[in-house]
Amino acid sequence: MATSTQTPDHDGAPLVTDAPRFSRKQVVLAILALATGGFAIGTTEFAIMGLLQEAVADLGVTRSQGGLLISAYALGVVVGAPVLGLFGATRERRSYALILLGLFTVGHLLSLIAPNYELMLVARFISGLPHGAFFGVAALMAAHLAGPTKRSRAIAVVMGGLAVANVIGVPIVTWAGQQFGWRWMFAIVMLLAVITMIAVATLTPRQEPHASASKRGELKGLANRRLWVGIGLSVIGFSGMFALYSYISPVMTDVTGLDASYLPWVVGLYGFGMVCGNFLGGWSSDKTVLGTVVLAMGLVAVFMVLFAATAHVVVPALLFLFLVGVSASALGPAMQTHLIDATPNSPQLAASLHHSAFNAANALGAAMGAAVIDLDWGLRAPSYVGSIAAVIGVAITMYAVVLARRAHPGQPVLKPVRG
Fold first, then answer.
1. Do both 198 and 268 map to the same domain?
2. What is this structure's pTM?
3. How does it sit in the membrane (predicted)?
């Protein structure tokens, strides 16, 4: 049984939520089951980058064509998040999460057996379709299970699966692909997806959407200015991080002077920073959502400048790279929660669109970095451009604060983070 309660959220909006009565063990196991799906998704999203040379050689295509395998997946995320998010608005959440994981598994099976490059592109697109919608429904399920006072921390655990994948899943799968063939990546991720389906089916309770949920209501949410300001904030804010991260390899070798053999450790350090930031962001967002965004975005801007300024010295360069990972990743749970809060009548669509915005930021950040490098501004330039994007993100956040105050006058929006 569950009782309905009304609790003010941290952006000042009244959040209607069901407070479930489950044991702590049940809640922990259910949320970890959902996080396993995040781990599988994170592994497939990033491992292909480390196996791109093997994929190009096997498929007999150029390096630029091989890069489209990454783009096809990202396009699937951008398209699938709103479409599948809308489709699942009125569905029971556990069964819908299983449907999305099933589609994810099918996409990887097709990738495993695709006989040529063209079909591989189609398979990668299909694999990306359920990405955003799964994270969206998983975030809503986790928030419901944890209750209103711990919802952001629960969302952080689900998203933490993606962060942990960068530290554990991606290196292991990359090694296996190099040793036994790059398509083993798809077989391993398929196994992870099946394990997740079993865990979700057995460990998470059924969870009906709110009684007022409807596809029409979700579509009406698209007219909400706060939603689009939040999406714009995600795109601009995260693009700064990707402007730096997309070119971290040449910066570390050509500017810092590290041997290429140290790059896995560099990427691992950044990934560890992402894990730390993700959980710090979840804790902080349960105190103040938009306050966390302002703080994290401001720190991203500062640490990117410091990284660029000290990139020629190993120790400070690695320190500030780690701190960029921490501060940028802290944005994830905060932005996911903010989008849900901004559109309380269309939470499924809003939660899914966060991941469309994240992938759009990936493309924008890489493009910004490429543009300044092509202008011969040097390899430090993407970090400076990323810092400017973060400053713009702070300005957009302050506008989001104004909108939240207009929507709910008299309720606190920015509050100090306290333990």
1. no
2. 0.76
3. Multi-pass membrane protein
C-alpha pair distances (Å), 293 with each of 139, 252, 268, 335, 336: 18, 28, 25, 7, 11
pLDDT tens column, 236-262 = 888 888 888 778 878 888 999 988 778
Residue 101, classed as helix, strand or coil, is helix
Structural domain boundaries, residue 400: 221-407
Contact between 413 and 401 (Cβ < 8 Å): yes
Torsions phi, psi of 125, nearest 5?
Answer: -60, -45
**What pLDDT, in 10s, does the model give residues 59-118?**
998 866 887 888 788 889 888 988 888 888 778 999 999 999 999 999 999 999 999 999
Quote the tokens at residue 317.
């360069």
Give the ranges where 114-169 is alpha helix by DSSP (H). Answer: 117-146, 151-164
302 inside domain: yes
Residues 212 and 240 grouped into a single domain: no
CB burial readout 267-298, b (16+ within 10 A) else e? bebbbbbbbbbbbbbbbbbbebbbbbbbbbbb
